[in-house]
Amino acid sequence: MLHARIAARAFNTPLLVDPIKAMAFLSGLGPRVLGRQIDVVDGFEAQGAGDAALPARASILTNGLSENFHQHGEAPFPLVDGIALIEISGVLIHRGGWIGQSSGQTSYEGLAAQIEAAASETSVRGVALEIDSFGGEVAGVFDLADRIRALRRDKPVWAFVAEHAFSAGYALASQADRILLPRTGALGSIGVVVMHADLSGKLDQAGVQVTLIHSGQHKVDGNPYAPLADDVRGDIQREIDVLRVLFAETVAAGRAGRLSQEAALATEAATYRGTDAVEAGLADEVTDLGSGFGAFREQVARTSGSTSARMQRASLPKPRKETAMAHAPDQDTTPQDKEARDVRQEDASETKIDIPATSAYSEATIAASDPDAAAPPATTPASEPPATQPGNLAEVSARLRQEAAEITEIAAQAGRLGIAIDAAKALREGTTPEALRSLVLDRASAAADARDVVAAPPAPALPQATESPLIAAAKRDAAAGKRS
User: How far apart, in whole angstroms, are the C-alpha atoms of residue 77 and residue 121?
Assistant: First the structure.
């Protein structure tokens, strides 16, 4: 039963897998699955089968930190300095366990769950994809690639190629903001392969004849009990050609500005190692992955730290003297102004803020991304959206990502001051951090003014004597004189 399931996944279905890895599979498991030695045809050779060992399961990015990792809730990934570590290794399959320790498989289903958790978890400020895979199934890979690319709009995503990111592995790596690999690392193989097993010769020798009774002309196309017909081969070829174009489109969307669809197709499914991958536009940097991960941690910490410091400075209450002067009564105040001031004072106790839309950006601007752009965001008036020329798309996208982080941090800081902010609404309507911060300060100032107004009752009057002491003394003297 197990062999039948393996054969169903491996044969007569499009695979995004490196051909050498496919040949290793055929050489190692083929005889056990099919019951005979495999004769490879059509230019494939079973060389390189010694590279079929499964990748190590221990993460090289945490550098031992995973042992001391403090799990936040039920997050399905380690979290190091606000960075979610998601491992993509081994054979990539559509459905199944998240990461099979013994099988060396990773499912798109499990990866999608981790990506969604990273997107919704506020403690996650960045995502690191640790990739070591020769590829896997077509089914599900492009949908997962779209999810990773969408995550980049809110949080930086870096891909660390732990030696191999071929075919489906590269389809996922290409959706990250940056791709880093070591000198010996390799990636690429932007192509599709289908394997077909012809058992008809072996069955003839064994005197076995298989009869397939079917309804529908193409119902048994590609079955292993007969040679592959030319028309069936042509249909398979057309199918994988279409999938290859879709593969190239996905890569181009993730590598916007660095690798076009035409350039991806022009690689002809070749693989690239080290600096050759960077020169071809398939990667961004050759570096030691530990150092590269350290740089990613520093960038995430620097961005979060600067945002927090600015929020803390902005949230300090005004001095009382300044507040009193700012709200001193004006003799020339009109009745309308007085009414407006009274309304503001009544609103001082309210903490709900209505977020105005002050900026809007196009989807194309958000899609382009460059995490190296670390300049602080500039205020953009609502009437003047940022330019979207090709030269500054990456800069604008980086600024948007940083503004989103600032808005989230502002909402958290404001909450500690007792001021509730709908951060999701602010992000949805494109509110700039400066406009949001100004509203928070206005509310904090109004609340401080309301607290400074103390209604003190008048001091109680001292009890009055019923009779003056002088009059009482005079009366006593007068009474004494009469007696004498």
Answer: 11
Cα Rg, the chain, nearest whole Å: 36
Neighbours of 243 (CB within 10 A): 18
> In 256-362, which ranges are continuous DSSP H helix?
261-266, 275-279, 289-314, 320-326, 335-347
CA distance 94 to 96: 7
Give one DSSP letter per residue of 213-274, joined into a string. Answer: --SSTTTTTT-TTSPPPHHHHHHHHHHHHHHHHHHHHHHHHHTTTTS-HHHHHHTTT-EEET
Provide the token pair at 429. Answer: 């309507």
Average pLDDT of the residues of the chain? 74
Cα 314–chain centre separation: 28
Give CA–CA dist 270/191, Å, rounded.
Answer: 8
Contact assessment for residue 339 and residue 411, using Cβ atoms and an 8 Å cutoff: no
Q: For 244-303, how does the pLDDT look when each residue is reduced to its tens digit (9 = 90+)?
A: 999 999 999 999 999 999 999 999 999 999 999 999 999 999 999 999 999 999 999 988
Domains along the sequence of the chain with CATH: 2-58+65-199+225-295 (3.90.226.10), 319-325+344-379+389-452 (no CATH)
Range 335-372 burial, b when 16+ CB lie within 10 A, else e: eeeeeeeeeeeeebeeeebebeebbebeeebbbbbbbe
Phi-psi sector, 468: left (phi>0), alpha (psi -120 to 50), beta:
beta
The CA-to-CA distance between both ends of the chain, in Å, stands at 138
The alpha carbon of 218 is separated from its chain's Cα centroid by a whole number of angstroms, namely 43
Task: Please tell me the distance from the alpha carbon of residue 304 to that of residue 316, in angstroms, as a whole number.
Answer: 19
Contacts 24+ apart (CB under 8 A), 99-108: 101/57, 104/54, 104/55, 105/136, 106/133, 106/136, 108/137, 108/140, 108/141, 108/143, 108/144
What pLDDT sits at residue 34?
A: 54
pLDDT confidence of residue 434: 82
CA 238 to chain centre: 35
Side chain identity at residue 2, one-letter code: L
